[in-house]
Design goal:
There is one protein chain. This protein is an alpha+beta fold and 62 residues long. 24% of the residues lie in helices and 21% in strands. The chain has a domain at 28-61. It has one helix at residues 47-61; strands spanning 28-34, 37-42. Strand 1 (28-34) and strand 2 (37-42) form a beta hairpin. The radius of gyration is 27 Å and the shape is elongated.
């Protein structure tokens, strides 16, 4: 008895999607203007990182 293995290649097909994808729109949460340096923080930003950046901008913009 000889054993034969057959290699089957997969066939991938895209399914039609009925869902409409939402386009991402960035919404600013805070706008800061210090000595003509404008900083915009968007919703969803890491709050600790944003506060550290604001501190640095305010310190060096003076």
């Amino acid at each position: 008895m000889t054993e034969q293995n057959e290699i089957i290649t997969p066939v991938f097909k895209n399914k039609p999607s009925n869902l409409q994808k939402r386009s991402f729109t960035a919404r600013p949460a805070v706008k800061i203007n210090v000595n003509e340096v404008e900083l915009t923080i968007f919703k969803g930003t890491n709050s600790v990182l944003a506060s550290d950046i604001v501190k640095v901008v305010i310190r060096y913009a003076r």
